Amino acid sequence: MTIKPKQIAVINHQNIDEIAARDIVRCKVKAIINADETMTGSYPTKGPLILLNAGIPILEIGKDCFDKFSDNQFITIHSSHIVVNGNHIPFDLFTEEKYKQLIKISYENLPYNLNHFIDNTLQYAQKEKDFVVQPLIIPKLKTTLRNRPVVIVVRGKDYRNDLIAIKDYVEDMKPVLIGVDGGADALLENGYHPHLVIGDMDSISDHALLSGSEIIVHAYPNGSAPGLERIQSLGLEAKKISAAGTSEDIAMLLAYEKKAEMIITLGAHSHMIDFLEKGRKGMSSTLLVRMKIGDKLIDAKGVSKLYKRKVKLRSMWPLPLAALFPIVIMAYVHPGVRDIVHMFWIYIKLSVF
């Protein structure tokens, strides 16, 4: 269900990540009730602070209380408890002070987590190398990628701003646009129509699925594809790719195998915090995919932070001249104005000569 402005969002989300927090802020909710730890201190995340800075209170309740809530339910929030269907549910308020304590702990835990993350990545890289070494089995597609630039939009940090930052490139080069799950919604929000939608269909809207894009469901290596049920429930058709790794890995490999000229990614996950926030303990498949693609891959993540153009006064002087030019021309061609100009010119000549 879509969250509407001024509603209260009841979630079950441990370590609220930055992407989720920004989406919640965009929804303009009144408050958040979280049936899990908003922040554990296991790794640094900005999500809770983004919510607090936006003036959205975070109320933490017990995990077993989540099922007591349902959509469009009326609830009352008191100073220490929530009343829903006659149940009095106590809560703890997540404060900025608590965030400061946990962010300090998380940075102290960072060396341990990094060590574990590297070990996990190397361990799974050994298991998943065949997935990358062998060609990806791709069904026949309607969309042609050969010798064309491809832009892959993933629902990651700053993906919306980065998409706006490369607007001129998209309009000039007309690349193939691939939306990975929620990345398809970002493309539509900016006036672009994704050629391909790839993912397990867990964070994409029905609107994006119904937009007419070619749909590829990312299935597990054993062929199981829970996302396919959603596609079929909407009366749509989709192709399927069964493979290990993440959906953005599949999107990059697909572009590579289909001989794309260049592969540009926006919002792609590329470091430890990215993957921990995504719920993954390593990045083996992504590391191997990037190694395989090589210099065809351009990671444009964060490009919107590189340069913000400032309007300079000296670059604006032609604007008033351009605005006055048609006025002057129209005034001159008017008979009355022409006569006045002519008389003024005669007066100057008589006065001087």
From TrEMBL:
Residues 174-209 form the Thiamin pyrophosphokinase catalytic domain. Keywords: ATP-binding, Kinase, Membrane, Nucleotide-binding, Transferase, Transmembrane, Transmembrane helix. Residues 301-349 form the SteA-like C-terminal domain. InterPro entries: Put_SteA-like (IPR047795), SteA-like_C (IPR022215), TPK_catalytic (IPR007371), TPK_catalytic_sf (IPR036759). The chain crosses the membrane at residues 315-333. GO terms for molecular function: ATP binding; kinase activity; thiamine diphosphokinase activity. Coiled coil: none annotated. One of its GO terms (biological process) is thiamine diphosphate biosynthetic process. It comes from Chengkuizengella marina. Gene3D superfamilies: Thiamin pyrophosphokinase, catalytic domain (3.40.50.10240). This is Uncharacterized protein. It comes from the Bacteria.
